[in-house]
Amino acid sequence: MEAATDPCLPPLDADFFTHLQRVQNRKHQPLIKAVMQDVVELFGQNFSVTMETVFSTLEHTVRMLRTTGEYGHFKRAHLADKRDRLKQAIAAVLEDSLMKRAPDGASSRTPKSCDHHDALVKRHLAPRDTLITFNYDCVLDYALRSQGSEKWNARFGYGLPVASRGHKAWQPRVPATKDATVHLYKLHGSLHFNVSERQVDTVQLKQRPYTKQAGPMRFTILPPESEKAYDRGIFTGLWKAAAGAIHRARQIVVIGYSLPTTDLHSTALLRTSVTTRKLRSLVIVNPDREARQRIRSVLQRGLSPQTRVMSFDYLEEFVAADRRVWRV
What we know:
Number of strands: 11
Helix content: 25-40%
Shape: globular
């Protein structure tokens, strides 16, 4: 991406509000203004906070008011509105950073492709492999659609009861069979997941994950807050399926995930699910040495003297390597 034409980049937790203010699409400007005012109201003019800090502050303030009652300035309904606006802002930033630019400067309906994600799916992924991600975006989903013929089936690959309507927009040219599909477990939800109040046990896959039309965007995610509801609703079965996949795994590749010390739920998932001394290989793709060490520590129970442990700094390096190096 070129900063001159794409100033808004896919955000990290720490720089989310910087990139939110760089969104160019005019339709999002009222939302952005409202969100920035919300954060200033909570943290002051010269705030320096992460997205997770704001979500967690709103979460705990609402819980506190539920216990103590509403005194003074803050009202639960107003805080809930701020939380909803911040969720909408996530979609706005991802749309502006991950979709191609239309001639009028707005975001088009065409996703930007990523050569490295495409190569990951085309060259390294095999039928019945499992992908586990904590990301809300659909970059990997688009790569599976374009490069996942005979490997991916959007109806059966998410580990969720997907509605019969909508999944065809995410199918590759030749969908895999139900038994052969790759599985993609999106443990924090996705911008193209929509669970309605009437059909709480079924997920509809939205064709346009980031696009705002009339009214607010509807999607199902676990916001980046300190107490994620991964043990309720559709997420219960999803986390159970992910735990089973980790338990059966003999090769594990961890790409770009730093396992922050605050992510106690994901740490617990990895630590308790890996099978003792059964990993044949562990590959960690991350330039951060401390992050690589945290991953190895959490998965230590799965390592044996025969386990091949490898590191790559970047996804580009990993996808360029022969997969026989780590598929031992």
